[in-house]
Amino acid sequence: MIDADQLAERFRANHARLLGARDRLQAAVDAGTAGRGDQQRLDTLNELLTPVTVSEVDANGNVVEVQRPRQFYSVNPEGQGRAVEVLGDLQQARNVAVLVPGMGNSLDTFRGQSDRGDLIRDEAGPGTAVVVWMDYDSPHGLVQAASNDAAIAGGPRLAGFLNELNDLKAEDADVTVVAHSYGTDVAARAVMAGAHPTRLVMTGSPGIAKYVDEAADFVQPPTRLYTERAPRDYVSYSEWHGPDPATFPDAVRMATSDPRVDDDPVSVHWHNQYYRPNSEALRNIGRVVRGDLTRITTTNTSRSAETQLLLGASWGDPLNKVASTASKVYDGVAALTNPTKESAGAAAGQNGAVHPDAATQSPAARAATGRTGAGRAGAPRSPGAARGAGGRHR
């Protein structure tokens, strides 16, 4: 196991890397030689370098709040950018979640994914650490998403990290991979490449591959597959890349609204709401991460029933037909962008989602919509989770 000093040194080295990149960009901006997009990247780097407030126990056993730099296990500030951030005490945690984002992400949208990691950690409760893993080239736009190249390249990278994680975490800590949208394909390929997380959660998946129609096709014991599909998630409904994992007979399909109440006040619909605070969707993810499996709520509703329940039969059937048409259109785009891979697609799958995550706003976009470092509007925090000077609390 890598000791705490070695891990802390890695965090310091990546902090220094961000500082160097920030200073070079600031010099270019000051000299008037900065290129297009450099100011946005400079804003991003300044945000990543802002300290966070955390609670620690001092030498006298008192809980005190201190500020420290964010913990980047790896970071690449160039180009589209990549980052792997650790939220919490990775080496002391009993449960570790690894969050794998979907399409439309870059270093400039990383804050949204880090916020999502905070929500998962808060929901899972004490003794949880979350790793936000964005160490692949997330596809941008329909043409890139029509290719499975990013997943093919990213899957082995994720598998390699999960193997490294075995030397970073406590020996008996459970690992849950939580993947969204295109990230479900990356996570699936990591498992196919030999990674063995304790549990695998897939939310809003557009399918894994055309030949994968049950968990046993790609998940090997002891890993267990858990899925979520929200009503009106037409990315999942379209099954662009293969059968929807929420339909796999050997997966646990979790509810996204509380089945114990007639009208859940925190409804989860569409493709980007699985991580809403106080939602049953997020509560179930937290239960999986902390191993509280007997409290998971499940569902087996069909997409037709989900659509008609929300929109009525007069709208439900036409929209389901639109989803089917979208699937055919997507297959055509995939064939055009991967003409030499048409036959291989049946074996490997044409993967990727065409809708970017709602959590992928740039710093400027967040400021325009009120989603700034001051916290998530309307998102209740756990006790003691006050924001620090950096606007983020682990």
Mean pLDDT: 81
Q: List how many beta strands DSSP finds.
A: 10
The percent of residues in helical segments reads 25-40%
Specify the structural class.
Answer: alpha/beta
Strand order of the largest sheet: 3-4-6-5-7-8-9-10
Oligomer: single chain
Radius of gyration: 21 Å
Describe the structure.
The chain is 39% helix and 14% strand. The chain has 394 residues and is an alpha/beta fold. Strands 3-4-6-5-7-8-9-10 form an 8-stranded mixed β-sheet, with helices on both faces. The protein has a two-stranded antiparallel ribbon with strand order 1-2. Helix 1 runs antiparallel to helix 2 and helix 9 crosses helix 10. It starts with a helix and ends in a 25-residue tail after the last helix.
Short description:
With 394 residues, this protein is α/β, with parallel strands linked by helices. It is built from twelve helices and ten strands.
Please supply descriptive tags for the structure shown above.
disordered C terminus; 394 residues; 39% helix; 8-stranded mixed sheet
Write the SSE topology:
Layout: H1 4-31, H2 38-48, E1 52-57, E2 63-68, E3 71-76, E4 82-87, E5 95-100, H3 110-124, E6 128-134, H4 141-145, H5 149-168, E7 174-180, H6 182-192, E8 199-203, E9 224-228, H7 234-238, E10 252-253, H8 280-290, H9 303-311, H10 313-337, H11 342-348, H12 363-369
Parallel strand pairs: 5-6, 5-7, 7-8, 8-9, 9-10
Antiparallel strand pairs: 1-2, 3-4, 4-6
